[in-house]
Amino acid sequence: MQMELLDIATARLRIRNLQIIDLNDFYEYRSNPEVTKFQGFDTMDLTQAKEFIELNSSLNYGLVGEWVQYAIALIDTNQLIGDCAIKLDKHSPGMAEIGITISPTEQNKGFAKEAIFGILEFLFDIKKFHRIFAIVDAENISSIHLLRSLSFRQEGHFIENIFFKGQWGSEFQFAMLKSEWDSLNKVKSNTNV
Ligand SMILES: CC(C)(COP(=O)(O)OP(=O)(O)OC[C@H]1O[C@@H](n2cnc3c(N)ncnc32)[C@H](O)[C@@H]1OP(=O)(O)O)[C@@H](O)C(=O)NCCC(=O)NCCS
Prior knowledge:
Strand content: 25-35%
Order of helices and strands: EEHHHEEEHEHEEH
CATH topology: Aminopeptidase
Bound molecules: coenzyme A
Number of strands: 8
Oligomer: single chain
Radius of gyration: 16 Å
Number of domains: 1
Structural class: alpha+beta
Strand order of the largest sheet: 1-2-3-4-5-6-8-7
CATH superfamily: Gcn5-related N-acetyltransferase (GNAT)
Shape: globular
Largest sheet: 8 strands, mixed
Number of helices: 6
């Protein structure tokens, strides 16, 4: 797949590569155990946060089989309010897994929904992807609400399938197909007429 710089604009947000200017805001929420409680990674110290930004800032969209973490910034000020990740499937072109984190000070403002909507528009409408999926801890209420609210379909409930942060955890898998995305948008445009 061709490498390119990801730059997605929504009404309030810009999804772009992480930059070193994001360090303080990034470190602030990525060092908070409440934020990483249900995530596959742990809290970071400042050095780890800097190394993480340096690594991801040089990764372009198009890399397959690895997570690439992007910044979610306010479009007006360029201030970082969270990050999102896309992992393009190594074996099935047209399939990707996504993840997202919003800083606690910026949660419940619709930012995660807006950012993921922007990613779906990019992957489905521009890149013509076939299937996007997300795996969330079965106790991660806010993520489950977020995915349901975007009309992701729950397609799996894995029971104690992962040894996670010292204990067995359960997970849900959610997915959306391009055909489902297209139907949703058809319904929306019909409603707007
Ligand atoms: C999950 C997370 C990204 C949601 O971010 P957010 O910006 O607060 O979410 P939004 O404001 O866009 O809300 C999206 C929808 O979820 C609902 N929602 C969000 N948190 C909720 C909660 N705790 N309880 C009930 N509903 C919730 C909102 O009401 C909204 O639904 P609606 O539009 O139908 O009203 C955020 O809580 C987070 O970063 N959590 C920690 C990191 C994490 O666990 N990430 C997921 C790993 S995949």
